[in-house]
Please model this.
Amino acid sequence: MRLMMIFAAWNAKLPATDECYYVRDNDKSEVSSLTTDQTELLRRKLDIVVKGDTTPPPILSFASCKLPRKLLENIEVAGYEMPTPVQMQAIPAALARQSLLVSAETGSGKTGSFLIPIVSQCAKFNEEHFQSQQQPLAMVLTPTRELCIQVEDQAKVLGKGLPFKTALVVGGDAMAGQLHRIQKGVSLIVGTPGRLIDLLTKHEIELDTISILVLDEVDCMLQRGFREQVIVFDMPNSIKEYVHQVGRASRMGEEGTSIVFVNEEDKKLFPELVEALKSSGAAIPRELANSRYSVGSFSAGRGQKKRKHGF
Ligand SMILES: Nc1ncnc2c1ncn2[C@@H]1O[C@H](COP(=O)(O)OP(=O)(O)OP(=O)(O)O)[C@@H](O)[C@H]1O
Ligand SMILES: [Mg+2]
Model:
């Protein structure tokens, strides 16, 4: 995974501010012209708290971060005159391919914070690497079907007229149609974890090309609807650490499901991973059981593993 973005609502109220920021429309050089002091001041005024030394300065306009021209037009059509504070900080960081954990209050524009970088990166990739059909480059997981529909709708508005197709993976609609759409070629998959697991365990779909993963409303996923799911991300370097991570996560909540993304770089761990899954009574995913790196033969069944790596 090259870029992981995790979003959560932050219920603490932002202090009211009557500050105005004037942005010159044609000023494309503002990012480099923001000094460290100005960056600090701006973050303080907007109540942006950043952890990590390498986070780029906030942007003051959408036009300043080299987005495709058509995307800028779509942003304007959507009625976004200037970025909201969370967008000011999250968009340049995501475009710089920094993984993010973002928390901002309800209605602060978090969706745009991850969709604008996704549309930009996917459209640029598709323009540069002409292929007869698109391949999944990004995936957004949200806790509910309704949220997924909203996110996909907004993605379509932002991606209009660009080489950028989307697919939904949610319950309530036939899986066959959703699978067909993915197979015909899309850049972004928006789905719920439950339906995604269902799809991955029942069908062979290649997600190797995905390099951007977003978990939206992760607070809600963990606290409410998905309290019973434990989500673990990229495979640690050892099985010991993997078992430890799953154990640690499950101690925080109730029994649940662990999802870990493995790829060929983890191949030396495959035999031990299969053993660990077997001894815990978990299902061994088809891809893992059939892998030439896993010793022996195992019956494939429902499972939660799927290899996944960047392009
Ligand atoms: N830069 C912007 N300018 C004007 N409106 C915006 C901008 N960005 C987003 N919006 C609008 O603000 C509303 C709220 O945005 P969004 O749903 O992304 O908030 P959120 O932070 O995800 O909230 P929640 O925590 O409730 O999910 C939407 O109607 C969206 O279209
Ligand atoms: Mg949201």
Remarks:
- Strands lie at 3-9, 100-104, 138-141, 166-169, 188-191, 212-215, 229-234, 257-262, 306-307.
- The chain is about 40% helix and 15% strand.
- The domain at 3-224 is CATH 3.40.50.300 (Rossmann fold).
- The longest helix spans residues 110-128.
